[in-house]
Each structure stands twice: as structure tokens, then as C-alpha cells.
Design goal:
Layout lengths: L1 H7 L9 H15 L1 E2 L8 H20 L3 H15 L6 E2 L1 H10 L4 H4 L1 H9 L11 H14 L8 H14 L8
Antiparallel strand pairs: 1-2
Helix pairs in contact: 2-3, 2-5, 3-4
Length: 173
């Protein structure tokens, strides 16, 4: 994100994709939410249910609509996972979350996206970059015909042709 801010200035709004964040969180929950004792511990189904509950707590932070709701959801998540009990140890997840996500909450939590989304005149709510990835695939497969290398002038020509063929949607700049 530092590179984007360097290139476009500090006022640029970087919005992280919810799908990619959830994927990373699921992987980390499986790794960091551990059973303390293997002997007589929870079954595989109970482990999955407990980890799903932790994901619900994390998703609550993502979907919080106000800063206060986010802070409440974070407090619940932190309280439930910061101290190991007789069965579960999630302290590694708290360390991971605080290190990589808490200071970037403005980029992924809906509590801070409200003003960003409201600034557009059209009615949409961007949560993932699936449309961008789909367009990138179309560009590579249809317009560039899967060519690995393309001269810059040819690429610019193709992009300008595409842009001129798209109807004006009157989106704000």
C-alpha cells in the first residue's frame, strides 16, 4: 500500500478485497487456533465448529457499520481469544491479527467504507476485486489473445480501442 500512496498521494483510498482477506483469515485460523491437549481433545467436528465461531467474530469486525460497532466486535474477539483455556489456544491469532490487520482496519472494515461508498453518485458497494480480476482475464484472453509479451504501443492501442467502445457511464472521477 505504501507504493500506491507514494504514486498517487496520501489522499488515495485503498480498499482491500474482502474475499482475499477472508481467505487469509481462514487459513490463519486453522493454523493459529490450536487444541491445547491432544489427549481426549475435541473431535474434528468440534474443532471446525470452534474455528467457525472465531471466523464469525472476525467477520463481525469486517461487517461493522460504525467505528463503535467495530470496537465492540474487536473487544469481543480479543476477550474470547487472548487467553488460552483448558482446550483452546488462540493467542497466536490475536498476535497475527493485531500485527497485520488492526492498523489497516480503515482499508477493510465496512465502518470506514461508508463515507467512501457514499461519495459516489451511483449505488454500489465494493467489497471484492472479483470484477477487476474478471476484466483482467478478459483483457489477457480476448484482447491480447494470451500473448505473454506485448509491445507497449500495441498494448496502448488496444486499451484505447477498448475504452472508446465502452459507453459513458457518467461515473464520478
Amino acid at each position: 500500500m505504501a507504493g500506491i500512496k507514494d504514486a498517487y498521494g496520501e489522499d488515495v483510498k485503498v480498499v482491500l478485497c474482502h474475499w482475499h482477506i477472508l481467505k487469509a483469515w481462514r487459513q490463519r485460523v486453522v493454523k493459529e487456533v490450536r487444541v491445547v491437549s491432544r489427549v481426549g481433545g475435541p473431535s474434528a467436528l468440534e474443532r471446525k465448529a470452534y474455528r467457525d465461531g472465531v471466523m464469525v467474530q472476525m467477520i463481525a469486525m469486517m461487517q461493522a457499520r460504525t467505528e463503535a460497532a467495530f470496537e465492540d466486535a474487536y473487544a469481543d474477539f480479543n476477550d474470547a481469544n487472548s487467553t488460552p483455556d483448558d482446550v483452546w489456544d488462540s493467542t497466536g491469532l490475536i498476535v497475527y491479527f493485531d500485527r497485520y490487520y488492526l492498523d489497516k482496519k480503515e482499508n477493510w472494515s465496512m465502518a470506514w467504507r461508508q463515507s467512501y461508498v457514499a461519495s459516489y453518485t451511483c449505488d454500489f458497494d465494493v467489497r471484492t476485486n472479483n470484477y477487476v480480476e474478471s476484466w483482467h482475464r478478459t483483457l489477457k484472453e480476448v484482447y491480447l489473445q494470451n500473448l505473454r509479451t506485448q509491445r507497449v504501443d500495441v498494448l496502448l492501442y488496444i486499451l484505447m480501442e477498448i475504452e472508446s467502445s465502452i459507453p459513458n457511464l457518467d461515473l464520478p472521477t
